[in-house]
Amino acid sequence: MKKLLLLFVCIVVFSSCSNDDDSSSGISCPQAAQDAADAIAAFTADPTTENCITVRNALEAQRDSCGDPTGSIAAQLAALTQC
């Protein structure tokens, strides 16, 4: 589980930001990617339902800010079966 989440963090960090940073959510793509990585790290350390929900929200914010041209964020969201 931890290796899977670490893989997701790597995917998020390296493939998350698109060229279009003018999002309506008010958060920049790099900041959204960092927030998602932080949330995933917290969930990996303490896999509670609350942390799972935080990861889901952070990934959705990242998808809104950065887009998801590779489908990696959608795959991460689908893998979150705990929340």
Structure, explained:
By secondary structure, the chain is an all-alpha fold. It has one domain. It is 69% helix and 0% strand. Helix 3 (49-66) packs antiparallel against helix 4. The model has no long low-confidence stretch (mean pLDDT 84).
Q: What's the end-to-end separation, in Å?
A: 15 Å
Helix/strand class: mainly alpha
Topology order in helix (H) and strand (E) letters: HHHH
Oligomer: single chain
Shape: globular
| Overall mean pLDDT | 84
| Unreliable spans | none
How many domains? The number is 1
Q: Number of DSSP strands?
A: 0
CA radius of gyration: 12 Å
In short:
This protein has 83 residues and is mainly alpha-helical. The chain has four helices and no strands.
Q: What's the helix and strand layout?
A:
Blueprint: H1 2-15, H2 29-45, H3 49-66, H4 72-79
Helix pairs in contact: 1-2, 2-3, 3-4
What brief labels describe this structure?
0% strand, 83 residues, mainly alpha
